[in-house]
């Protein structure tokens, strides 16, 4: 059996080069963590301040311009093996690996795993191991010149080097171009043979669950070997002749339960065992959890353009998705527990698909294991984003190698539904003015239309492939046409206003979003400005979008007054983000089945920042998360203006028909009935239905003092005829009681007057506490209950505090009184 000796202890790191400050040079070699990075090691050593606080990130740019050397002295005792190897699961990025004075390898790709044969180089006892990293900033600049300059987002030529693109900064992320051994390292020894890789394809063939396993081996013996796979008590085996290094084993598993996505069935997985033996002696074994399912993407032309439909096990999936970025600017810090916590948030928000964006990483098996277990589908981009990419060497071979490796590793996960060629590069090639800069140079087309589809067809034929996002099936057509396949809708945030989402009738929205600040606790932990204002230095350092602050303001004032108090500003921008995204999702879903889904930008953040995320960089839920939960309801009622009329849209994302009785009422803000309509639509499974509202309900007598309420059982929708700032909202007259529970509190709130978007900002009571609801609209006399986990030392006064219990009324009525 393979012996693995982790290389986690005894490392040091030391900087080299003229950019390294004198204090860091004087400190010499400092203790290093593996997995880890230079930034986190310097932080642990007290040589830099936290890069997430204030403008420290800007003052630490020298780190990416320096060279760094990691050293350790592993002890090895000869164990009878005939092969010894150094294995690195991730080296970031340009590095030379030296063992006992001999260079055993060189790397240029953060996204690859490396294995170096050191047989005969390891010494009995102590060994000198050095990993010398070159400056990623200088290497990227040099590679860009060597390949020929090509267009890219942001300020570093990240497209010339195979390093996480957002590591060089993004419009939501810090520029922390770092170096380090960012994934585990070890010595591996073996004798005879070992399993190098197992290529797993689990699917359903002719209604029978089936798995194919391509076994690749390394060997030092010239005897026949036996490969064997087992699932649910069934097995298949094959002899690998003495002169061969591979075998393909196929196994039918009749009766095995299928894996289903959230809301469609149980995400059942099964243990797959792969063994390698000779003469009855076991040489190597691996185990994996697999799931049997089929995935298809259909893009057929119709009278409205070209549709986009994801089908799993033959059934339509209406996507309620969110985009996912690296959860930390230093991804080695993301633990299995942290993944689980973030995916708890995804489930809370009703998300059934996460898109792993192409400027980050091929996500870890910990992430995919969680998605497998929860039934959350994954759309994984290949790692090319917002840039033109050279198709020449040496970049081509690096992209091919990393992509093959990633597909082999991820293909066993049943949650992996889509592999996507790139993020926005097809669109960028057409509409972002690249032509003059490229001047005939390659830009990446051969990756998207030749290399990647060939890799997926070979290694993961059970996974759907798209050439890019956004995309249209015909390469010569406009690649970001909302009427054709997938679209990214950024015109609304960048140029317009959120009601303008309704200008589009998209078939599938793969990106759209609206900015908001992190929670108050996260913001004030990271920004120490005094006074803290929307435009104070730390706030600007933690706003990475071009003209982001201006867009926040422009997107607010049509709906809510611009506050002068910082606490009110924070709440207003948080509320506006939530309402904007809720508006978009409910509009897209109201078009079901014309539109089959949306993927909001974005679920998570990698540091404390004003951004499009629903969960901030400290893992705290923003009000947007409650908006997602509401807009992603399996059975949704929403009232929408369309073609000059108001329509009641019903969406049924369940397997059962919905025989709904909907009571639609026009009410005054005091709760007085003005008109009523009863609708009894029959809504089929996984589809939508629309009802045009009668004028008696749809036309207000006093726009600023009336609303429409639609109810069907526990499902409710509201429509207001006027913007918040033009509504006759009075100060929130709230009666609040709080009762201790075993885990925290139940907080009951009763409205004395109409209150809109009532939200308990629980982090202001206890930074570690959570609450189960938000953005609640109540008519006079109605009540709601908030369930709080944590905040055990709180008092009733804490929950009643004006900075904690917020509503839109605060921003409108209080401004009117002022």
From TrEMBL:
Entry-linked InterPro entries: Beta-gal/glucu_dom_sf, Beta-mannosidase-like_N2, Beta-mannosidase_GH2, Galactose-bd-like_sf, GH, Ig-like_fold, Ig-like_GH2
One Gene Ontology term of the molecular function aspect: beta-mannosidase activity
GO biological process: one example: glycoprotein catabolic process
Family matches, as Pfam families: Glyco_hydro_2 (PF00703), Glyco_hydro_2_N2 (PF22666)
Catalytic activity: Hydrolysis of terminal, non-reducing beta-D-mannose residues in beta-D-mannosides
Alphabetical keyword list: Glycosidase, Hydrolase
Keyword set includes Disulfide bond: no
Occurrences of domain Glycoside hydrolase family 2 immunoglobulin-like beta-sandwich (ranges): 195-293
Enzyme Commission (EC) number: 3.2.1.25
Domain Beta-mannosidase-like galactose-binding: 29-183
Similarity comment: family membership: Belongs to the glycosyl hydrolase 2 family.
Protein name: beta-mannosidase
Source organism: Jiangella anatolica
């Amino acid at each position: 059996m393979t012996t693995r000796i982790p290389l986690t202890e005894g490392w040091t790191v030391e900087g080299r080069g003229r950019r390294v400050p004198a204090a860091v040079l004087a400190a010499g070699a400092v203790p290093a963590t593996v997995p880890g990075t230079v930034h986190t090691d310097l932080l642990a050593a007290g040589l830099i301040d936290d890069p997430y606080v204030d403008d420290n990130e800007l003052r630490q740019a020298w780190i990416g311009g320096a060279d760094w050397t990691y050293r350790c002295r592993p002890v090895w005792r000869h164990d009878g093996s005939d092969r010894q190897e150094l294995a690195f699961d991730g080296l970031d990025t340009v590095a030379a690996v030296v063992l006992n004075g001999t260079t055993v390898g060189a790397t240029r790709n953060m996204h690859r795993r490396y294995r170096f044969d050191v047989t005969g180089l390891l010494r009995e006892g102590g060994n000198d191991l050095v990993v010398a990293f070159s400056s990623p900033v200088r290497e990227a600049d040099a590679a860009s010149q060597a390949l020929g300059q090509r267009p890219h987002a942001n300020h570093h030529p990240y497209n010339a080097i195979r390093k996480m693109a957002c590591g060089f900064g993004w419009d939501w992320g810090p520029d922390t171009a770092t170096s380090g051994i960012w994934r585990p390292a070890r010595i591996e020894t073996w004798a005879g043979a070992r399993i190098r890789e197992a290529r797993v394809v689990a699917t359903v063939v002719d209604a029978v669950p089936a798995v194919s396993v391509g076994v690749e081996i390394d060997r030092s013996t010239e005897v026949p070997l036996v490969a064997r796979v087992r699932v649910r008590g069934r097995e298949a085996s094959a002899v690998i002749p003495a002169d061969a290094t591979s075998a393909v084993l196929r196994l039918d598993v009749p009766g095995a339960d299928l894996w289903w996505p959230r809301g469609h069935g149980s995400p059942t997985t099964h243990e797959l065992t792969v063994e390698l033996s000779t003469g009855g002696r076991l040489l190597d074994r691996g185990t994996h959890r697999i799931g049997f399912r089929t995935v298809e993407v259909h893009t057929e032309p119709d009278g409205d353009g070209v549709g986009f439909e994801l089908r799993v096990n033959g059934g339509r999936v209406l996507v309620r998705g969110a985009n996912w970025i690296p959860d930390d600017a230093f991804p080695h810090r993301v633990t299995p527990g942290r993944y689980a916590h973030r995916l708890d948030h995804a489930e809370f928000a009703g998300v059934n698909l996460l898109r792993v964006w192409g400027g980050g990483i091929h996500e870890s098996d910990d992430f995919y294991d969680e998605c497998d277990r929860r039934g959350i589908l994954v759309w994984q981009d290949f790692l090319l984003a917002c840039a033109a990419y050279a198709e020449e060497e040496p970049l081509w071979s690096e992209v091919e190698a990393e992509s093959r490796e990633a597909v082999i590793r991820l293909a066993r996960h049943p949650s992996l539904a889509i592999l996507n060629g790139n993020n926005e590069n097809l669109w960028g090639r057409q509409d972002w003015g690249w032509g003059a800069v490229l001047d005939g140079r390659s830009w990446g087309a051969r990756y998207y239309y030749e290399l990647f589809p060939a890799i997926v067809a070979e290694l993961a034929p059970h996974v759907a492939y798209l050439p890019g996002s956004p995309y249209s099936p015909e390469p010569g057509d406009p690649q970001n046409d909302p009427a054709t396949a997938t679209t990214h809708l950024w015109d609304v945030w960048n140029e317009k206003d959120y009601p303008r989402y309704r200008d589009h009738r998209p078939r599938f929205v793969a990106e759209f979003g609206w900015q908001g600040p992190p929670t108050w606790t996260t913001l004030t932990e990271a920004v120490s400005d005094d006074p803290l204002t929307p435009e104070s230095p730390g706030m600007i350092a933690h706003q990475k979008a071009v003209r982001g602050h201006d867009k926040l303001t422009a997107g607010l004032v049509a709906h809510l007054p611009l506050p002068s108090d910082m606490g009110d500003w924070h709440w207003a921008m948080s509320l506006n983000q939530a309402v904007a995204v809720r508006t978009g999702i409910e509009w897209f879903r109201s078009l079901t089945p014309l539109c089959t889904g949306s993927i909001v930008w974005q679920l998570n953040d990698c540091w404390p920042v004003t951004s499009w995320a629903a969960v901030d960089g400290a893992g705290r839920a923003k009000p947007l998360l409650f908006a997602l939960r509401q807009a992603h309801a399996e059975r949704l009622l929403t009232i929408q203006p369309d073609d000059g009329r108001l329509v009641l849209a019903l969406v049924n994302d369940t397997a059962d028909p919905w025989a709904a009785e909907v009571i639609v009422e026009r009410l005054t803000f005091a709760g007085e009935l003005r008109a009523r309509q009863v609708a009894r639509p029959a809504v089929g499974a996984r589809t939508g239905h629309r009802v045009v509202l009668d004028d008696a309900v749809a036309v207000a007598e006093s726009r600023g003092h009336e609303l429409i309420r639609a109810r069907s059982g526990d499902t409710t929708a509201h429509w207001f005829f006027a913007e918040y700032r033009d509504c006759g909202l009075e100060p929130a007259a709230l009666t609040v009681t709080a009762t201790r529970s075993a885990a925290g509190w139940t907080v009951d709130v009763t409205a004395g007057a109409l209150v809109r978007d009532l939200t308990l900002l629980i982090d202001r009571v206890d930074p570690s506490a959570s609450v189960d609801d938000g953005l609640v609209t109540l008519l006079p006399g109605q009540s709601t209950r908030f369930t709080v986990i944590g905040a055990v030392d709180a008092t009733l006064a804490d929950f009643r505090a004006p900075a904690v219990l917020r509503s839109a009324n605060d921003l409108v009525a209080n401004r009117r009184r002022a």
